[in-house]
Amino acid sequence: MKRIIVLAITLSLVMAQLVSAQERLDEDRLTWFKDAKLGIFIHWGYYGVNGIGESWSMYHKRISYQDYMAQGAGFTAANYDPQAWAKLFKKVGARYAVMTTKHHDGVSLWDTQYSHLNVKEKTPARRDLVAPYVEALRSEGLKVGLYYSLCDWSHPDYEVVFPRPNTRKDYPQRGQKNLYPWERFVRFYQGQLKELSRRYQPHLYWFDGDWEKSSEQWRAKGLKDSLLAWSPGVIVNSRLKEEGDYKTPEQGVPVVRPEGPWEFCMTMNDNWGYYPSDTNYKPKAQIIRTFVEVIAEGGNLLLNIGPKPDGTIAPEQEERLLALGDWINKHNEAVFETKAGLPQGHFFGPTLLSKDNSKVYLCLYGQPNNYINLKGIQNKVMGIKVVGTDQTLTFERNGGAAWNNIPGILRIEVPKKEYLDEYVTVLEVSLEGSLNLYRGHGNAVELND
Ligand code: GLC
Predict the structure, then answer these.
(1) Range(s) within the chain of domains with CATH label 2.60.40.1180
(2) Which stretches in the chain have pLDDT values below 70?
(3) Of 3, 243, 378, 432, which has the most beta carbons under 10 Å away?
(4) Neighbours of 179 (CB within 10 A)
(5) Minimal CA–CA distance to 436: which of 409, 407, 410?
(6) 334: Cβ below 6 Å to ligand 1?
(7) Which CATH fold would you assign to the domain 27-330?
(8) In sequence order, what are the residues at sequence separation of 6 or more whose Cβ sits closer than 8 angstroms to the Cβ of residue 314?
(9) What is the sign of the dihedral through the CA atoms of 162, 166, 167 and 173?
């Protein structure tokens, strides 16, 4: 009996150690991601030829399967210059990019051996478009992300809600005739992922379309283990059911800070792919504010572009990337040397905190009046300056009851007009020591001078 108890205790100790080792490994895998702040999402596919909704136009029967696929004839990639893309992404401060290797429509942007429905065989592009993208990102020191839609509306073993011709001839499935359709599909999609992993060794997989099946149907747990074996250290977004490493809110910026690592993806107009009739572009100010609000809550922004079928980026999109890039470059230290900011209540606007907790960054929209107000800072303030300029600001502490550990407000001088940023002005508040916040409700001051 005694031996059994000793054995059980030893075993549970070993297990606990293994679990914490695994947690440490997970932490390490995500380190670069947590500091990345900006990624570029790239939706590139057939849909840009007619300028219609990516894959969904088929789903909603706005176009027939045949007409949708006929767009392939116009997908030329004739001016595709991934090196120029990567240089642009790097210039604007992105640390990673994520490109659609296969959207829900099932068209592969690489020359997969698992289906003839790929741009090399079906389009005038006539080549693998993923390899040069991966190479270009690596050469600029950017992390490589691959978007892959789990659901596949072309594969004959994947049922769809719209009429579709028999597509079997596009899917060589030697020796798989007697398998259940779903088993064939799982082999197909996991085969493609093995192919992508082995060839391109991505740092990140961005799955999509998991909502159509259950975790068991996707065999999500087994797949995650395989992905890690094929591309050690790879991280996976939240759309592989519960196997994801980070959350992916989409289009609506979260109001409450999500728990754990997260990334917010957003289009510049209202569509993911190239859609020239959609001119509802977000103003640069909105994109920059959104970026600030996302990083102030500890997330990354995955900002989308939808290149044209020839591989060029529309001027409206490039312009917006460059404006964001200028802002980031000017505020580099506040963006990359920081983490999520103060809890609510201290400052009315987004804030960031330096990694060592010795600096608070206050983000100002527009032109403040009278004075700028920061509450609840116990530390002595060493100095305040406008980031990206040489202007220092005067400040005064007022009110409070220092002897009762209730700090007053910090009344900060408004920067001169010429020092205000066109989009978001950032003030750096340097503290003595590590941030010490007053989080009280306030109380009577029981002992006065
Ligand atoms: C949604 C859409 C998809 C798009 C993705 C990007 O999941 O289904 O079309 O690619 O969002 O986040």
Answers:
(1) 338-431
(2) 1-25, 449
(3) 243
(4) 14
(5) 407
(6) no
(7) TIM Barrel (3.20.20)
(8) 274, 276, 305, 306, 307, 308
(9) positive
Bridge partners, 363 (sequence order): 426
Rounded to whole angstroms, how far apart are CA atoms 127 and 133? 12
> What contacts 296, CB < 8 A, 6 or more positions away?
340, 341, 350, 351, 352, 363
Give the class (CATH, top level) of 338-431: mainly beta
The residue whose C-alpha atom lies closest to atom 8 belonging to ligand 1 is 209
CA distance 119 to 130: 10
According to DSSP, the residues that pair with 96 across neighbouring strands are: 39, 143
Strands (E), 278-405: 300-305, 338-340, 351-354, 359-365, 372-374, 381-386, 392-393, 395-401
d(CA 388, CA 425): 9
Phi, psi dihedrals of residue 33, rounded to the nearest 5°: -65, -40
Nearest atom of ligand 1 to the alpha carbon of 56: 9
- Ligand 1 center from residue 215 Cα (angstroms): 19
Euclidean distance between CA atoms 91 and 315, whole angstroms: 16
Looking at residue 18, its pLDDT comes to 47
Q: Using a 6 Å cutoff on CB, does residue 81 contact ligand 1?
A: no
Is the shortest distance between the CB of 272 and ligand 1 below 6 Å? Answer: yes
Q: Ligand 1, closest atom to CA 250?
A: 12
- Residues 119, 77: contact at Cβ < 8 Å? yes
**Structure tokens belonging to residue 368:** 């403040």
232: which 2 tokens?
Answer: 């050690």
pLDDT > 70: percent of the chain: 94
d(CA 377, CA 371) in angstroms, rounded, equals: 17
Ligand 1 pocket test: which of 208, 240, 267 has the largest number of ligand atoms within 8 Å of its C-beta?
Answer: 208
Residue ranges, comma separated, of all CATH 3.20.20.80 domains in the chain are 27-330
Q: Which residues of 385-417 are buried (b: 16+ CB within 10 A; e: fewer)?
A: bbbbbebebebeeeebbeeeebbbbbbbbbbee
Is there an atom of ligand 1 within 6 Å of 297 CB? no
Q: Is 392 helix (H, G, I), strand (E, B) or coil?
A: strand
